[in-house]
């Protein structure tokens, strides 16, 4: 697999249309990094993630897929 992301933000809860607290922080951090020119992914193994964002790739992942994405990303931010 080619490099997946410059920065992969891993969040422990489902990434929903309505977020609070740490979810908002994870999304805003990912957006700020994307606006700075980084390719950013935001993911969680808690499914389903039903949010989309124009600047950040938000996606569902299994634990196995997460390891693959993590190994192909330059930086991991785990919240």
Features:
single chain; 79 residues; 2 helices; 4 strands; 29% helix
Structural overview:
It contains two helices and four strands, in the order βαββαβ. Strands 3-2-1-4 form a four-stranded parallel β-sheet, with helices on both faces. 29% of the residues lie in helices and 22% in strands. With 79 residues, it is an alpha/beta fold. Strand 1, helix 1 and strand 2 form a beta-alpha-beta unit. The longest helix is centred in the middle third of the chain and has 14 residues. The N and C termini lie far apart (25 Å).
Strand order of the largest sheet: 3-2-1-4
List unreliable stretches of 5+ residues: none
Structural class by secondary-structure content: alpha/beta
- Spatial separation of the terminal alpha carbons: 25 Å
- Number of helical segments with 4 or more residues: 2
Average per-residue pLDDT, rounded, comes to 89
| Gyration radius, rounded | 11 Å
Sheet having the most strands = 4 strands, parallel
Instruction: Write down how many β-strands occur, each being a DSSP E stretch of 2 or more residues.
Output: 4
Judging from the principal axes of the Cα atoms, what is the shape? Answer: globular
Give the DSSP E fraction (strand runs of 2 or more residues). 15-25%
- Helix/strand order, N-terminal first: EHEEHE
Helix content: 25-40%
């Amino acid at each position: 697999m080619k490099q997946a992301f410059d920065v992969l933000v891993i969040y422990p809860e489902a990434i929903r249309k309505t977020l609070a607290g740490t979810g908002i922080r994870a999304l805003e951090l990912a957006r700020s990094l994307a606006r700075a020119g980084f390719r950013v992914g935001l993911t969680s193994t808690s499914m389903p993630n039903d949010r989309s964002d124009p600047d950040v790739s938000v996606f569902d992942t299994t634990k196995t897929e997460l390891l693959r994405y993590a190994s192909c990303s330059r930086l991991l931010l785990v919240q």
